[in-house]
């Protein structure tokens, strides 16, 4: 689809905020992004036939937000357990519910997540959950980009390990794009063709649920196939204490010792990364592992506070994420931005920490290129993927505009997003998304049925 | 206006969440709020002529949110200074801008604030700023409830004190409702007649900008006229340190010693209340002073963390507030709720602190009746003021509903509010508010002109 967005008062780009500009989209990419003169009122000019013209006068444009760590289908558990201690929450609420999930639940739960993403301006998510094919199909049907990982556990049980390895190997055969072309009926398109890419990752859950063998096997597969290795790391103090007592070293040192870090250098992403000491930050920097920062989840579960400044000072790649909605309870990256910035300020007693501009850069993917091989871009730029969000400025919360980036981080919310373009396709226009009614209906029905089964 | 809201799947009331109910409004009050059978599809029944019928099927109802501390006209400074240290922010940004404000700026800035309130489900604000008549007129024209205080300072200068006292005395003559009826052309209606009340408070800015004489005089006027005394207290560590070094006691002890607390018992409200020790919490409890908790502002300016549990354990009245938008940067009480709950959890390392239910109670005014004499109510109840917000459940973020209160606190935002009723008048329906276009246009124009003058 060719698209022209005219008369935009503002666009947040890789080179800062550009005023009064026009964006043209061709073949899934941003062909041009240029300042233009203020509209002269002479009406729409002629554009090539078949081009979609979007009147940008009420909007600011920004890159689609990137959700660096999530569990999509947990939308069905939104609000199912809140204000509880972690262990009680897991044992009484989350695990029993997850044990009852069907493939249908995962498909529609992930569709609901993808719908929520689109309706709040997010065009990519790095997902980890319990059914690869259903999650893959849901992202594909929704039209958003997705890195899909099957959550792996073995709890140090060799039989369990072999079983999950076999499952993942079968999936990889079906889903890995061998780059010569489509590797199967559903393909694994990298997005450069204007079709949003949905692609696999290798996703061992964590060091406390996976054996060293499973972690190392995962790293080997990720290395061999050039895939992203996605795990949880350093989320709680307990995790660090347990690792120290079992292995005699801290979690990142453990990952290095068992031969994981050297195999995932530059293509690993670790969710949370809160309880890291200097030696661990140094390892993350050395191996170029991206940290996915989850402020809402870390606050709601009382996990701890991410050390933004230490991470940036060491040049560690970093992205932003809402985690699953069961510990959030939404996927709105605008909420995440405000929480991230405000929490850093109060926690460090320094209001200059994590500025609006830095926060927006983190949320649009400026500080990590771990997913770049699959077409996931950073802030808007010519030649970059046409993943574009148009946010409606005609809200009192967005009035006036002294500083657009401040308004976006501190005043906006996802419900102000009017239009979403992903890989050159318009997924939402005037807040209308295809299949919305059906997705909401199925989500309600399956969530009700799920809790009745538990 | 008589109103019937039918077929509501949920209403958050003083007695918890009621499912499948109907609300009738008569003469500015909630006449009935009752569970009703699921609609039988037979279509709308007959209602008395002139009654407005609202189809509630897509909505949940909650009480209009109460903003306990704000500086309305600062909307014109939204995003004008961010990510700065307090003193630099004040000296380089806020004070020069405020010195340039005109009465027209304050009127339209406050209209913009009131518009934002309505569009995010807030029906009452406790305002403190620099022009009483303009703020009064703005709230009145918008149709929301407002407690309006003229911010008083004297910086220990007797001439300044006498001047501001004279100004306030003149205003009080014009605006205080003497309860025998309207006290002047604009009245000061208490809201019981179906007309939203706008009413004066006595608002000395703080102990560090006001002399003891001005503070005591303010308390005397508040006592004599039965008005609310509104001030800032215990916002920063500096404020406490300065008070200790100048007066030898902490701020609340100082307020008691100079004869303020005994005169404002039960009708005082103190914004922030962060840096209070046990003796000060005891004084707040003893004198029944309401604390206005401002999580976004306290985080953004790195002021500190409010101690929710200590406040509730002592039974101190407490309300929620966004402060002015220059330190927030919006007036969305849904943002405030999520921030408040999440911050308590991570700060205390206890995820059970400040539950969704408690947060919603705080935001709807359940924990303080300091403004009750002027018709400001708490959660929805029969006989209470008809200040009703209908939030649209037809959003992915609100799907499914396992726990409505969790969804409202952790997943919703103000832009999901569809309809707002205040004192029985419909101020917003289908997100349409009267004069919106003009208010946004004036807001933009005056903000631009303001920064050009600075």
Quick recap of the structure?
By secondary structure, chain A is of the alpha/beta class. Chain A is built from 14 helices and 17 strands.
Characterise the protein shown here:
Two copies of one chain form a homodimer. In chain A, a hairpin with a 2-residue loop joins strand 16 (425-429) and strand 17. With 454 residues, chain A is of the alpha/beta class. Chain A folds into two domains: 3-63 and 379-436, Urease, subunit C, domain 1 (Roll), CATH 2.30.40.10; 65-374, Metal-dependent hydrolases (TIM Barrel). Chain A has 14 helices and 17 strands. In chain A, strands 1, 2, 3, 4, 5, 14, 15, 16 and 17 form a nine-stranded mixed sheet that branches. Chain A is globular and about 65 Å long. The longest helix of chain A is centred in the middle third of the chain and has 18 residues, at 158-175. In chain A, helix 7 packs across helix 8, helix 11 packs across helix 12 (356-364) and helix 12 (356-364) packs across helix 13. The relative contact order of chain A is 0.17. Chains A and B meet through helix 2, helix 9, helix 11, helix 13 and helix 14 of A and helix 2, helix 9, helix 11, helix 13 and helix 14 of B.
